[in-house]
Give the backbone structure.
Amino acid sequence: MSRKDILWKVGYLAIAAGVFMTDQASKAWATRVLRFEGDRSIIDGFLNLAYAQNPGVAFSMLDDHGDAGRWGLSAVAILAGVLVMYFFWRTPRSDDRILGALALLLAGIAGNVTDRIRLGFVVDFIDIQFGSWHYPTFNVADAAICIGAGLLVLDMFMSKRKDKVGAEGSVNTKSKALNPKSADVS
């Protein structure tokens, strides 16, 4: 790996550190302000800020396992973070979408595991609703994880499409090479 590639990847890690710091600062604000002063409506009927403690994982699943759950979830999150870092350093510099996705995943994992280890729960405070539909309360780290995962899924579909187009092009090239009498009418 060249020095330029390493510098690019360090840049992605700096962005991940910025997302992590934004997450931690916003959670500190929510803990200090929303917990004591109450909820705030940003866009009435759509976006509210409401302090919540989530001892479980996404959507409060596994929230009733006490300290064993806390440390078990923390261990799983740390393992996930190590795997993300492994794939991050193995990803070629040219795969910007994957590098960005992995950086967002790393920032989100680090933000939530920091809360879980330090506080015993994750601080959530972003509350979105559409009429009677109500999305579970989340935070900046959760948003980073969702965006990172979405970018990975997008890349997977785009890679399959590119492979399919490339395979179709190579099939056509091969068929022309196999049949020298075929006329090129283009």
